[in-house]
Amino acid sequence: MATATADGPEHRLMHIGGAWVDAVDGGRLEAVDPTSERVVATFPDGGEQDVDRAVASADEAVENWRDLGWARRGAILRELADRITESADALARLDVVDSGNPLTGMRRDIAGASAEILYYAGLSPEIRGSTSPPSPDTLSYTLREPYGVVARIVPFNHPFKFAAGKVAAPLAAGNAVVLKPSEHTSLSALELARISEGLLPPGVAECGDGAREHSRGGAGGPSGRSANRLHRLGAHRPCDHALSRGAHQARQPRARWQEPDRRLPRRRPGAGGAGGSCRDEHRPLHRAVLRFDLAPLRA
Amino acid sequence: MNIARCTGQSCGSTSRLFVHDDVRGPFLDALVERLSELRIGDPMDELTEVGPLTFRAHHERVLGYLASGLREGATLLHGGRRPAQQPRGFFVEPAVFVDVEDGMTIAREEIFGPVMSVLSWREVDDVIRRANALPLGLTANVWTNDVSAAHRTARALQAGYVYVNGTGQRPTGTPFGGWKTSGLGKENGLEELLSYTQEKTVTVTFL
Predict the structure, then answer these.
(1) Is B194 close to A119, i.e. CB distance below 8 A?
(2) Chain A residues 51-90 within an 8 A CB cutoff of chain B
(3) CA–CA separation, B28 and A199 (whole Å)
(4) Using an 8 Å Cβ cutoff, are A230 and A243 in contact?
(5) Which of A25, A54, A101, B144 could form a disulfide linkage to A206, CB 3.0–4.6 angstroms apart?
(6) Mean pLDDT, residues B110-129
(7) Residue B30 and residue A27: Cα distance in Å, rounded?
(8) Which portions of chain A are predicted below pLDDT 50?
(9) What is the pTM of this model?
(10) Contact (CB<8Å) B193/A102
């Protein structure tokens, strides 16, 4: 989604809570074509308040997404893969402009992203528990439950492939995802949000962007809401900063490199929060379900 | 080394090549010949095989590694400069260093660009020890027609993903993740899916 500007490169928006938005503080970053060194677009420089907004919105949406069950989530993800395939050429060309990677490689990247989404859509019923050796008067079994809100930070070398491919597993498992693409290659991730519109319920897959020093992965902003699991991909350095502050700092251990912090408590949005009533928030979800569950479930 | 896919900007880049002394000469000739043929230019062109690096600061970083290789005594056998036909853009010609010592910066750190170091070896145990003597351990590659040597070496290498006779192909569903400091956990498989869940045990007591 872009907004018209009188002159110069077009300005893209990020997608939070079903809406196309700018950064709260109005900050912007430039997308530079590394071949021409020209600025080809601008986009929001998301900051802490934007992360907080995205996590809060994802938190509102995740329960219904989880409760859809794997088959309906899988059907929606398969439709997402189809939409990506339909837009493959444009997405590949956007990544060429934004990243400088050759077109042949980026075409393979887009195909790879679709394949990864289809793979996890098909694999999701393998999220199983187990039973333990029984005793005469007890039964023990395990369940595997989604975390809730997952933050994914992805690097610049395969922009769309990582943006789309790396949200597949957490979504298939019933989590909502806040995606943070590289500040050097954000444009195709914003296109992923556009492609997902009307398919993924608002809040289930949030796409923010911004410079890395702002991307604290939903570590707990002004409202104290936090992502339940952080997964960062792509560098050999610790990312302590990603979860090192916020409301939980005093009593929570820092996340280690690429390690999910499994101990951050799930925060429920307070009554009368910014998300509106549950019914209004979730109505688009039900439409999406009605639209997409029939064919795959009958197959 | 994924040059045509992403200009060497790959977490699985084959930046250190250990080549047996007996084939070193012909190997270097063939490598330089192939690199000379690569089409560098506008990445939007269907025929282009090498584009620019993705952003200015990274371009400067890769140029910094090239300078460090020269400063520490390695010899630039091929490439490493701005292509003559590309006056602008974050381009760098794919580069090959020789006379590289294992302890040099270019042989120890992740350059994340189209820069290769060719090192030589004679004893297989020795080359495996040298290959493993880094804190990194995401990918490794083995090239051989000896099937036993391929399997034995794949087991000996300290890396989360080993390619035999082909690099960069990661079929969907093949678990991918690093050993040592190269990340935690696995992606691209059931383990990744399960990593986005938390297990809960329920014990029911019959009254």
Answers:
(1) no
(2) none
(3) 52
(4) yes
(5) A54
(6) 97
(7) 50
(8) 213-224, 235-299
(9) 0.84
(10) no
